[in-house]
């Protein structure tokens, strides 16, 4: 385990640490859905003022919920990528990669290129820790330091991305941070660089649910722990329906709710998440994962 401490990102990049901590906690549960051997190293390697939990013994019921949520979504995105690559995608783009260690922990074969896009300070921190660990990915990993609200398509191209190859795109824990215009820009950029047969998986939260969650004590608690106002970073402005935008650009779209995904993993969220009628539980039921395959 690395002992060296590195400077952490500022602002929105700090949210990657909450997701990472939730993965570490989930991986320590006896009934875990996934394990991320890098999650604890990232938290250990961070010059953070607050201690983020790494094991199930350190957390309260609220954090148990976050860990299970992280467990389900990690499995959903892992399975999506595995399937997309099995079906012929040989290029992966992880948008808002944060401290996602898929490039290192998934069993990539056959010379897959994996692109990780995020803010420079997040990827600088990540690479400092990975360098300290001497970690080597079983893929060709490309780090793309870019703002997803800007011209990240050019940065991706400069890193070697080839739009003539079939691509699997993911955005996990990203859309609530984007405004309507930025989300449209993201989807157009993906579409313009995708060959038929390319696939996309987006974690989806309806804007009215983003608005409800922004004011929820659960999000406030995470903001307090990290010392960043996540409430101000989440964008609930009305926007065109994400699935509709994808469909209009030629993607065949599917949606699975978080609850359905949890159920199919054998861990119904009922016991841990549900207080029927509570606005958090009701909102959660409408969140999930949009997938698309480009058919045009
Ligand atoms: C909640 S974290 C999720 C990270 C990772 N996908 C995961 O699930 O562990 C949100 C991530 O989105 C990134 N992000 C948000 N807005 C961004 C933008 N405009 N450009 C680049 N990255 C952005 C943050 O830096 C952060 O790493």
Automatic annotation (TrEMBL):
EC number: 2.1.1.-
GO biological process per UniProt: methylation
Sequence intervals crossing the membrane: none
Domain of life: Bacteria
Family matches, as Gene3D superfamilies: Vaccinia Virus protein VP39
The UniProt record lists the keyword NADP: no
UniProt keyword annotations, A-Z: Methyltransferase, S-adenosyl-L-methionine, Transferase
GO terms for MF: methyltransferase activity
NCBIfam families: mthyl_TIGR00027
Summary of the function given for this chain in its UniProt record: Exhibits S-adenosyl-L-methionine-dependent methyltransferase activity.
Family as reported in the entry's similarity comment: Belongs to the UPF0677 family.
PANTHER family per record: S-ADENOSYL-L-METHIONINE-DEPENDENT METHYLTRANSFERASE YKTD-RELATED, S-ADENOSYL-L-METHIONINE-DEPENDENT METHYLTRANSFERASES SUPERFAMILY PROTEIN
The protein, known as: S-adenosyl-L-methionine-dependent methyltransferase
């Amino acid at each position: 385990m690395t002992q060296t401490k590195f400077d952490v990102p500022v602002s929105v990049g700090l949210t990657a640490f909450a997701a990472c901590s939730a993965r570490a906690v989930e991986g320590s549960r006896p009934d875990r859905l996934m394990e991320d051997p890098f999650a604890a190293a990232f938290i250990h390697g961070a010059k953070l003022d607050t201690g983020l939990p790494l094991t199930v013994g350190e957390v309260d019921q609220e954090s148990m919920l976050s860990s299970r949520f992280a467990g389900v979504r990690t499995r959903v995105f892992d399975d999506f990528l595995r399937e997309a690559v099995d079906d012929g995608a040989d290029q992966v783009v992880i948008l808002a990669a944060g401290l996602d260690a898929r490039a290192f922990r998934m069993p990539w074969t056959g010379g897959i290129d994996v692109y990780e896009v995020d803010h420079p300070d997040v990827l600088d921190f990540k690479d400092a820790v990975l360098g300290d660990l001497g970690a080597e990915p079983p893929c060709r990993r490309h780090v793309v330091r870019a703002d997803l609200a800007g011209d990240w398509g050019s940065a991706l191209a400069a890193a070697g991305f080839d739009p003539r190859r079939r691509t699997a795109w993911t955005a996990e824990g990203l859309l609530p941070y984007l405004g309507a215009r930025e989300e449209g820009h993201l989807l157009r950029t993906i579409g313009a660089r995708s060959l038929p047969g390319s696939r996309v998986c987006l974690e989806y939260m309806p804007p009215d649910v983003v608005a409800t969650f922004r004011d929820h004590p659960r999000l406030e608690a995470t903001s307090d722990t990290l010392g960043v106002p996540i409430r101000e970073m989440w964008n609930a402005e009305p926007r065109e329906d994400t699935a509709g935008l994808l469909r209009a650009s030629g993607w065949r779209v599917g949606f699975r709710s978080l609850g359905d995904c949890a159920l199919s993993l054998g861990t119904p969220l009922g016991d841990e998440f549900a207080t029927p009628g509570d606005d958090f539980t009701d909102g959660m039921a409408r969140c999930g994962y949009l997938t698309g395959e480009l058919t045009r």
